[in-house]
Write a structure and sequence with these properties.
The structure is a homodimer. Chain A has about 150 residues and is mainly α. Chain A has eight helices and two strands, in the order αααββααααα. In chain A, strands 1-2 form a two-stranded antiparallel ribbon. In chain A, α1 packs across α3 and α1 packs across α4. Chain B binds a DNA duplex (30 and 30 nucleotides) through α3.
Chain lengths: ~150, ~150
DNA sequence: CTTATTCCTACCTCGGTGGTAGGATTTGTC
DNA sequence: GACAAATCCTACCACCGAGGTAGGAATAAG
């Protein structure tokens, strides 16, 4: 599994806030209630989003969280990357410049690199707004005959 | 991580056999030696490939393993699917017909379905032969301007 | 009958996932 | 000023899959 509950819940939180904010702050309790998820666990995930600058928060009564930008300005890749740490499908393609010692002679490496690229390409093209609007054509790719058969 | 060492080593084993078989059987010890991997661990992985019908085996002296088909007739998806069990990037898209209970109202599900499709599409188009031949254009996709910018 | 090999079963360690618990701090409202 | 509603912070924990290891039984070639 490439994306754990952390990343999935992060995305759920972002869409929930986008939908229910209306300019104001949305409380953690409300999100947990609506999404039927553990408030305590969501809290730890939201903290990541907040520290990462994807959300803005207000403490105290009537406080909560709101998006730092317009939904269309978030791509899914950055949300998942922040919460998951990496989106690489395999260990041997780790980003931080550290390469597998066998990389030079590894014949399967191009495959993993290609897979990584395909994933990153897909996720970076889709925005939070696409999810809110239920843009199925963009997400499921039915519109692209070429890519379907390729 | 979507693909563990099990799947990666499985692919490494398949390419090693394809390269070194020459019609005959390749022994586990030789593969482990060439690839610098634990023979005991490889053994458990090769057992899956063998039971799954991707390899043929011969016991006893001068025994070993060989491919059941031509390299060009294996696509990477089936090799990884057999060893990993699933290639789904998230838990909530599990294949066996069992769906998440929130599926009907989940706005992020199409995203995961689309991601799953993109991955499956990529891996099913590449063959073992492509890896052996180092077909970088196909694996890294540089030839497709359209898909690059899409 | 010896040797090289696959086949089978059982076991082990470690780190990450998926949480839970409790309290400290901040802010709006009366 | 008190209270309530909210975020923020630190610590803890159980479970399970990843990534192996170990030892021996069965089989086939020479």
């Amino acid at each position: 599994m490439m994306v754990s509950t952390k990343g999935r819940y992060a995305l759920t939180v972002m869409t929930d806030i986008a939908r229910n904010s209306d300019g104001g702050y949305v409380s953690l309790a409300d999100i947990a209630e609506r999404q039927k998820l553990s408030m305590k666990y969501l809290e730890s995930i939201i903290a990541i989003l907040n520290k990462g600058g994807l959300l803005e928060s207000l403490r105290g009564k009537n406080g909560g969280y709101k998006l730092a930008r317009d939904p269309g300005d978030y791509n899914i890749s950055e949300i998942l990357l922040l919460t998951e740490g990496t989106l690489a499908p395999v260990n041997c393609i780790m980003q931080d410049g550290v390469q597998c010692e066998k990389a030079a002679t590894c014949s399967t490496l191009p495959l993993w690199a290609g897979l990584d690229k395909v994933i990153e390409n897909y996720l970076s093209k889709i925005t939070l707004e696409d999810i809110i609007n239920g843009n199925r054509r963009k997400m499921l790719g039915d519109y692209c005959d070429h890519c379907d058969t390729l």
